Amino acid sequence: MNPAPLQHSSPTRRSGLAGVIRDAILFSPHPAMNEESLLAAVREFLATLERDRIPHVLVGGLATLQFVEARNTRDIDLIIAVEDLDRLPGFVLRERRDWFATGDCGPLRVDLLFTTNPLFERIAREHSEERAFLEARLRCATPEGIILLKLFALPSLYRQGQVDRAALYETDILLLLRHFPAEDAILLDQLAPHMPPTDIRALEGVLSDIRTRLSNPSRF
Prior knowledge:
Elements: H1 17-26, H2 35-51, E1 57-59, H3 60-64, E2 75-80, E3 91-96, E4 100-105, E5 108-114, H4 118-126, E6 128-133, E7 136-141, H5 143-159, H6 163-179, H7 184-191, H8 197-215
Parallel strand pairs: 2-5
Antiparallel strand pairs: 1-2, 3-4, 4-5, 6-7
């Protein structure tokens, strides 16, 4: 899970994780705690990942916000190995499934993706880079890695009727592709071993619609 760092440049990159957390609190209709307390909790959690050398890759909303102006989030999403679950600092498990777990670390909600899923393991191995977060240096998914994860999730979200969340994911994908181009065929080839053909065909349609929107800014 430690490939050589990749370099990316985005004209819309956020000023840092502190700004992301600050915005998440300001725009949350029901903030659970003040900015200083939440930032302290985030700092402690991330510093422990680095200090205890827990292999990880940051994904989800916080990872997306390092590259584009997207929606705010108060969750921390990580790819980790199942055997490292008990090493997470103060983690209290809420729910666990084959490839996923959700829990809390104090005031923080933490969503976990396990490397037992071959796609998640590949993203951790091939599509991650080291980045600075507050006082810690962590591994973060690259734009292509984030796109792959969001595409992988879309068919399941639609089957579950989570249309609003799926729409947010599609917008994240559009914004990432706008600044970090990737070929549809290459993305789908990486997903094909991990998804049924019907889902891949559905994703072809999603990507086609995104490409149309990108080529016609008036549709944004």
